[in-house]
Amino acid sequence: MLVIMAFLIVLLLSGNTKGEKVLHAFQNQIMNCNEKTVLQCNISSSMQLNIVDIYWTKHEEKGFKCDPRSSDNTPGFECNYTREALTLTILYPTPVNMGTYFCCIRMDSGHGKDQINVSLGECRGEFSQQMAGPKQKECSFNSVYPDGIINWFHYDKNVTSNSTVTSLKNSDGTFNISSILNIQDNEERYNCSLWSLNNGQYFKYQEFEVEVEVDAGSSPISSTGNISTQHCLSCTHLLLALMFSLRKYLSL
Ligand SMILES: *[C@@H]1O[C@H](CO)[C@@H](O)[C@H](O)[C@H]1NC(C)=O
Ligand SMILES: *[C@@H]1O[C@H](CO)[C@@H](O)[C@H](O)[C@H]1NC(C)=O
Ligand SMILES: *[C@@H]1O[C@H](CO)[C@@H](O)[C@H](O)[C@H]1NC(C)=O
Ligand SMILES: *[C@@H]1O[C@H](CO)[C@@H](O)[C@H](O)[C@H]1NC(C)=O
Ligand SMILES: *[C@@H]1O[C@H](CO)[C@@H](O)[C@H](O)[C@H]1NC(C)=O
Ligand SMILES: *[C@@H]1O[C@H](CO)[C@@H](O)[C@H](O)[C@H]1NC(C)=O
Ligand SMILES: *[C@@H]1O[C@H](CO)[C@@H](O)[C@H](O)[C@H]1NC(C)=O
Ligand SMILES: *[C@@H]1O[C@H](CO)[C@@H](O)[C@H](O)[C@H]1NC(C)=O
To answer: In order of start, what are the domains of the chain with their CATH numbers?
Structure first.
């Protein structure tokens, strides 16, 4: 009697009545940053399947669910199924979308599940540069992944020790990394490069040559510019006034 009970419990826990694996997926998948990615679990069964429930979940993310029959799914995802496969489309992959996804199926006869471990390649992000002060050049790499450091070079000379780097994490898992270099002489050219940690070693990932503008960032030059514009405006006013008075004089 006990043996039969145990056998029935094992049968129930094994999910499918025939012990057959219904869902099949490749265990690992790599996404490209911001490039639409489709995860797929193939459905195969020797019997007719009466599907009660079919959906996707994500490991350690309780709020995540995608159900092809629901319109209330996690934003940024679409899912679908046919008789052959259950798919999950990640519209704009970012670092927070990495992790383990489960495709799940519940039928009259039991349930099935498989998993896909999803990782992400590099996010290039956007480079920008500016003068942070009269003798300070700033380089920024926004929305990059993975995190990194910025090194500065003046030709062969590593001048990184005269810079400070900051890294801020965005909600999508990417980083804004910026560095300010204190420069000694104006009219200099520098290379500002982003280095990322890979297998415990830093490697150069992106590099831009930047030029330090003479006097840029200091107020005198911009106010001189404004003064000269005002100057020109008053010149025009004067000229117009002169012309008007001349016309008046001539018409009299
Ligand atoms: C799922 O089916 C597609 C199309 O038939 C096939 O290319 C793919 O290799 C299958 N995946 C697995 C994990 O068997
Ligand atoms: C789901 O699949 C159906 C049938 O193949 C198709 O018409 C529909 O556009 C798909 N929906 C999405 C969101 O891909
Ligand atoms: C998922 O894949 C990544 C990279 O391929 C690996 O580092 C990680 O250990 C894997 N996790 C699981 C649960 O397989
Ligand atoms: C920047 O790097 C390039 C090659 O990586 C080199 O040819 C160039 O001279 C460097 N420029 C400066 C200002 O260091
Ligand atoms: C850093 O700056 C100081 C003074 O501004 C200068 O003497 C020194 O040579 C600089 N170091 C590097 C590596 O450029
Ligand atoms: C440049 O200097 C910084 C700090 O001074 C150091 O961490 C970094 O490894 C150096 N980079 C290279 C390529 O020598
Ligand atoms: C990163 O940079 C982007 C673009 O400049 C900005 O919108 C965002 O707020 C920055 N993130 C953080 C954490 O500062
Ligand atoms: C000079 O003019 C620019 C726009 O032309 C303006 O943004 C700037 O604030 C002005 N600077 C001063 C010191 O008035």
So the answer is: 21-120 (2.60.40.10), 126-209 (2.60.40.10)
* 88, burial (CB in 10 Å: exposed 0-12, middle 13-18, buried 19+): buried
The reply to whether omega before 93 is within 30° of 0 (cis) is no
- The pLDDT tens digits for 91-102 are 999 999 999 999
Q: Which atom of ligand 1 has the smallest separation from the CA of 24?
A: 13
The Å distance, Cα 153 to ligand 6 centre, comes to 9
Distance of CA 73 to the CA centre of its chain: 21
CB of 71 within 6 A of ligand 6: the answer is: no
Distance 42 CA to ligand 1 centre (A): 6
Helix (H) or strand (E) holding 211: strand 201-211
Quick: pLDDT tens for 43-90: 988 777 788 999 999 998 998 999 999 988 899 999 999 989 999 999
| Top-confidence range, 161-165, 211-215, 235-239 | 161-165
Ligand 1 near 115 CB (within 6 A)? no
- Considering every ligand atom shown, identify the ligand nearest to the alpha carbon of residue 219 and give its number: 8
